[in-house]
Amino acid sequence: MSSTTPSTDKIIDIARRAGDAILEIYAKDFSVYEKQDASPLTEADMASHKLIVAALEELTPEIPVLSEESKAVPYDTRKGWQHYWLIDPLDGTKEFIKRNGEFTVNIALIEEGQATLGVVHVPVRGLTYVGKAGEGAWLYEGDDKQPIQVRTQRGTPLLVAGSRSHAGESLQRFLERVGEHELVSMGSSLKLCLVAEGKADIYPRLGPTSEWDTAAAQAVVEAAGGKVTGIDLQPLRYNTKDSLLNPHFLVFGDASVDWSQYLD
Question: Could you tell me which residues come within 8 angstroms of residue 243 by beta carbon, excluding any fewer than 6 positions away?
């Protein structure tokens, strides 16, 4: 990990401050806009974005920042980035709009294509998931800090994390193949965090996502002993291509299981 990386506590503080800014807007009426890709955008997304970018640029001016709400950065520019911050200032905007609390602030450090540090903050619950390569993963509730780890023995029924707002036919076919299971529906990157803390065995994502949706939580999952892979079971990597879209992927704790057997 880069010697210029600030302490994890400082990144947690930035994520929490962004969460507070989001909650100020969450508590009142807010407008919803539509981006070019037809996905929703609120003033909370932008308030969090501006706070995080400004804080990271002040803290580590030598490290580039890429946010979902940033202007597009050409691949010719970013492919030379050996390390950079990748953030989703409000992951789960649809859940924010529904006011179900299942949205997060995601901040990840990417080094040579790998998410090496991830902070996933849950503003409504006051919880913060943290993962750091080579050191471990933790769940913070205020000042209380508890280590977390994946389940390395699949249970019966199989606990499958699924999307609250994006479940589709591919997930249904996956569930039919695994047989006895319990579906744990959740919004945003919290589905990956369920695997990280051993509350789900697997999260199959068989629909579109972007790199900022997964990076921070992938760092948490991997630091907790789990895997985040493409359907080819190769690790999900970052900043390796022009498109910022992820391939379909799997998140799981028990690497002894060939999870690809349940795919089409």
Answer: none
Round to whole Å and give the CA distance between 125 and 222: 23
74's CB contacts (< 8 A; 6+ apart) are: none
> 106 and 215 in contact (C-beta within 8 Å)?
yes
User: Best-predicted range by mean pLDDT among 37-46, 67-76, 126-135?
Assistant: 126-135
pLDDT, residue 9, reads 96
Q: How many CB atoms lie within 10 A of CB 232?
A: 10
Cα separation, 17 vs 227, in Å, equals: 29
Q: Cis link prior to 89 (omega < 30° from 0)?
A: no
Collapsed DSSP state (helix, strand, coil) of residue 26: helix
Amino acid identity, residue 129? Y
pLDDT tens column, 3-35: 456 789 999 999 999 999 999 999 988 888 878
Domains in the chain, start-ordered, CATH in brackets? 8-147 (3.30.540.10), 158-262 (3.40.190.80)
Length of the chain: 264
- In this structure, the number of other CB atoms found within 10 A of the CB of residue 250 comes to 23
Tell me the pLDDT tens digit for each residue of 37-62: 767 788 999 999 999 999 999 999 99
Helix, strand, or coil here: 5? coil
Q: CA 132 to CA 143: how far, in whole Å?
A: 18
pLDDT band (50, 70, 90) for residue 163: confident
